[in-house]
């Protein structure tokens, strides 16, 4: 790292790394990097860091709300993060986008008593709020569950305040190509159904895509709609 900012980002990457593959040559105090999580993204949305190997290093997020916080997918269950989640108000709901990224869900459930929201077609364990079929589920006025099967049979996305779309492994930003991406190679259910689910996203307005894997992206709602249309046209 060539600056204090780059050093801090490297330390945060070390804390986030699910396999402890990042190290240091000398002794470092990681207290500030650990305390930086959950890291603010925008408004009331935060990135949890502390990725879990059991979720293949997937990203997880926290939505901080007066009515109760939402943990999106599962980070690693570790004491420093749990204490920060407690300080931010705990966890009311745990939204699980699909079966690949559930990691330490049971530990978070046991500690916080949160309700897990997961599609029945992916749930291999009992959950408190199963989602059925392709019907939308309004968890609260600012939280809409959108079933988006394809990557897995029970993949689903979460829309918050018509601004933040949490997408799991359904769609992500490809910074090299400057466009949205989805993976046919890592599709475990149906590519055709994933394309139809992608097209379904055109019915909604949002400015952020916050995926489990891949880069996140922000754009004006109309530009985001154009990017989704472009992706649908390429999903042949």
Description:
With 236 residues, the chain is of the alpha/beta class. It has a single domain, classed as Metallo-beta-lactamase, Chain A (4-Layer Sandwich). It is built from six helices and 15 strands. The protein has helices at residues 4-16, 31-35, 79-87, 105-112, 191-200, 221-234; strands at residues 39-42, 45-47, 61-63, 70-72, 93-95, 115-119, 129-131, 137-140, 143-147, 156-160, 164-168, 172-174, 179-181, 208-211, 217-218. The strands form three sheets. The protein has a seven-stranded mixed beta sheet, with helices on one face. The chain starts with a helix and ends with a helix.
What's the topology here?
Blueprint: H1 4-16, H2 31-35, E1 39-42, E2 45-47, E3 61-63, E4 70-72, H3 79-87, E5 93-95, H4 105-112, E6 115-119, E7 129-131, E8 137-140, E9 143-147, E10 156-160, E11 164-168, E12 172-174, E13 179-181, H5 191-200, E14 208-211, E15 217-218, H6 221-234
Parallel strand pairs: 4-5, 5-6, 6-7, 11-14
Antiparallel strand pairs: 1-2, 2-3, 3-4, 8-9, 9-10, 10-11, 12-13, 14-15
Helix pairs in contact: 5-6
The Cα radius of gyration reads: 17 Å
CATH-defined fold name:
Metallo-beta-lactamase, Chain A
The CATH architecture category equals 4-Layer Sandwich
Give the number of DSSP strands: 15
Structural class: alpha/beta
Low-confidence stretches: none
CATH class membership: Alpha Beta
Mean pLDDT: 93
User: How many helices?
Assistant: 6
> Which word captures the global form?
globular
Let me know the CATH homologous superfamily: Ribonuclease Z/Hydroxyacylglutathione hydrolase-like
Content of β-strand = 15-25%
Query: Strand order within the widest sheet?
Result: 1-2-3-4-5-6-7
Instruction: Tally the structural domains.
Output: 1
Q: Helix content range of the residues, please? A: 25-40%
Order of helices and strands: HHEEEEHEHEEEEEEEEHEEH
End-to-end C-alpha gap = 42 Å
- Largest β sheet strand count, sense and barrel closure: 7 strands, mixed
């Amino acid at each position: 790292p060539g600056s204090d900012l780059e050093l801090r980002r490297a330390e945060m990457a070390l804390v986030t790394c699910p396999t402890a593959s990042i190290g240091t040559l000398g002794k470092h105090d990681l207290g500030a990097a650990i305390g930086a999580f959950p890291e603010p993204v925008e408004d009331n949305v935060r990135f949890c860091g502390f990725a879990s190997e059991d979720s293949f290093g997937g990203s997880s997020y926290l939505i901080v709300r007066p009515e109760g916080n939402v943990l999106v997918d599962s980070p690693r269950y570790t004491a420093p993060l749990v204490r920060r989640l407690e300080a931010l108000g705990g966890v009311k709901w745990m939204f699980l986008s699909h079966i690949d990224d559930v990691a330490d869900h049971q530990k978070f459930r046991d500690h916080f008593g949160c309700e897990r929201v997961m599609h029945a077609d992916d749930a291999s364990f009992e959950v408190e709020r199963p989602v059925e079929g392709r019907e939308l589920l309004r968890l609260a006025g600012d939280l809409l569950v959108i079933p988006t099967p394809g990557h897995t049979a029970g993949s689903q996305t979460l829309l918050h305040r018509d601004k933040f779309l949490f997408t799991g492994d359904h769609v992500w930003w490809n910074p090299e190509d400057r466009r949205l991406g989805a993976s046919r190679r890592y599709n475990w259910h149906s590519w055709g159904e994933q394309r139809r689910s992608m097209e379904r996203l055109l019915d909604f307005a949002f400015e952020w895509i916050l995926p489990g894997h891949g880069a996140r992206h922000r754009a004006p709602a109309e530009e985001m709609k154009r990017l989704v249309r472009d992706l649908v046209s390429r999903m042949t």
